[in-house]
Amino acid sequence: MTAQVSLAEMYAEGRGVVRDEMEAVRWRQSVPQAPPLEELIDPEIADLRARAEQDDLAAQVSLGDIYDTGEGIAQDAGEAVRWYRRAAEQGDVAVQVKLGGMYFAGRGVAQDAVEAVRWYRRAAEQGDAEAQQVLGVMYTAGQVVAQDAVEAVRWVRRAAEQGDAEAQLTLGGMHAAGLVVARDPGEAARWVRRAAEQGLVEAQVSLGGMYFAGRGVAQDAVEAVAWNRRAVEEGSEEAWGAEQGDAELAWLHREAGQGNAGAQQILGVMYTAGRVVARDEVEATRWYRRAAEQGDVMAQFSLGVAYADGRGVAQDAGEAVAWYRRAAEQGHAVAQFTLGLSYDNGDGVAQNAGEAVVWYRRAAEQGHAVAQFSLGVMYADGRGVAQDAAEAERWFRRAVAQASLGVMYADGRSVAQDDVKAHMWLDLAAARSTGKLQESVIRSRDTVAQWMTLDQIAEAQRRAREWDTALPREP
After folding, report:
1. How large a percentage of the chain has pLDDT more than 90?
2. Which of 80, 139, 149, 244 has its CA 20 to 30 A from that of 30?
3. 363 vs 252, 295, 314, 323, 359, CA distance in Å?
4. Over the stretch 168-213, which tens digit does the pLDDT of each residue have?
5. Cα–Cα distance between 206 and 184 in angstroms, integer?
6. Which domains, from first to last, does the chain contain?
7. In whole angstroms, what is the distance from residue 170 CA to residue 150 CA?
8. For residues 296 and 281, is the Cβ–Cβ distance under 8 A?
9. Alpha-carbon span 327 to 332, nearest angstrom
10. What span, in angstroms and rounded, lies between the C-alpha atoms of 177 and 349?
11. How far apart are CA 30 and CA 7, in angstroms?
12. d(CA 101, CA 120)
């Protein structure tokens, strides 16, 4: 076996023989238990496997991650499961949660809900909040395990007390409905608020509704609008959604009519999207304008977009730039990037690369991924700024590290929608992230891949490899 593997390695690397990957594959396949061909080619991966075989926990986790993401090796969820299981059996909590998810989804292994629960429970008993929340939901619904109200509350509460936002919202919902626990609107509001303050959009919507109706909190129109506004800014499709009735809509109109800029901006969003009310871009623009003239930054940017696209008003690139500028000067990152793009292209304003750099930089420093990439291009080309390859690389690296760059291309936010670019940037972000962020990025990348052709996926992977080679990871 050793000689056959060595011969496969020689053909793979071209040592002592002319490199011939087909011969390498043939010799590799002649030994069923031999490591995959990629490991013969990449000595670092081979070293990882050697250490993993000796029960080095970190090596087992790393090898599982590499196979899970396909970083530098053919993606193989089954092989990932094998190494994750060995790490999980050594007590690695994060891997136990990941393994539970893979068994539950049937990814890399036959779907097995009982085995999924077993791994979630092991992680939960070690204090992992995500696993505790999952178990709580399972016991609530009687999913896989027998329905058990006491166990449901116990696990959800343990996760909530550790700060898990989903668990806090779940516990709030239990208290609001009197589900499993005593009905207590005040306690419900307390837990929902904790989740909302962490940025969980569903909790922000719920808290806004509580303030509107006075459930568990004193009725407060300003707070109701504020929490729904935060949800709207996060792109929520639920804030002031279809479940709101005539009373809520009338209340929102009354608040907007009395000069509440937040309510005016929410109405603009509703009329733009046709949520609750019939879509009416003229009416949307009217409300955006009223809020924008009061200094509402979101409304100023939305009004700029309306002028740029000619939605609800006559198209006017100059007027669009004027409103982008007002929002940008208040620190709105997307408006700053868009203003930079206007200067870069001479759209609605005289072309000025120096001004483009100023606004790209302001947005980039706030973490706007496309602005970071654009600033890198300006440094690379020496447009509007002295050419500086090192500074270009620094901004490219910051952009590549962000999953949000891929998400922007997938959704068409700030940039033209492009599935190939979305997949490419998400692939790079997956390769350069770890833990739960990496899992989230992989899910996003795989979702984008579902509506791509095989040729598009191959092209995205090719571009990702080129970028990965051009910008090697820092040690």
Report:
1. 31
2. 80
3. 32, 20, 28, 16, 6
4. 999 998 888 887 788 899 999 999 999 999 988 889 888 988 887 7
5. 15
6. 1-41 (no CATH), 48-120 (1.25.40.10), 127-230 (1.25.40.10), 240-328 (1.25.40.10)
7. 14
8. no
9. 6
10. 55
11. 11
12. 8
Q: How far apart are CA 474 and CA 341, in angstroms?
A: 30
pLDDT, one tens digit per residue, over 393-409 is: 788 778 766 666 666 66
Among candidates 191, 146, 193, which has minimal Cα distance to 168?
Answer: 191
Pair of tokens at residue 417: 């929608």
CA distances from 3 to 7, 10, 47, 433 (A): 6, 10, 18, 37
Axis-axis angle for helices 435-449, 93-105 (nearest 10):
20
Q: Which residue has the tokens 């730039």?
A: 321
pLDDT at 21 over 80: no
Our CA angle for 22, 23, 25, nearest 5°, is 65
Predicted confidence (pLDDT) per residue in 136-162, tens digit? 888 887 877 888 888 888 999 999 999
DSSP string, 157-215: HHHHHTT-HHHHHHHHHHHHHTSSS---HHHHHHHHHHHHHTT-HHHHHHHHHHHHHTS
Give the tens place of pLDDT for each residue, 307-361: 999 999 999 999 999 999 999 999 999 999 999 999 999 999 999 999 999 999 9
DSSP state of 297: H
> Given this model, what pLDDT does residue 41 score?
47
How far CA 378 is from CA of 32, 186, 360, 384, in Å, comes to 52, 54, 9, 7
User: Residues 135, 160: contact at Cβ < 8 Å?
Assistant: no
* Angle subtended at Cα 274 by Cα 269 and Cα 279, rounded to the nearest 5 degrees: 100
For residues 411 and 334, the answer to whether their CB atoms sit within 8 Å is no
Structure tokens at 453: 């052709």
Place of tokens 């999924």: 116
- Alpha-carbon dihedral angle through residues 287, 293, 295, 301, given to the nearest 10 degrees: 60
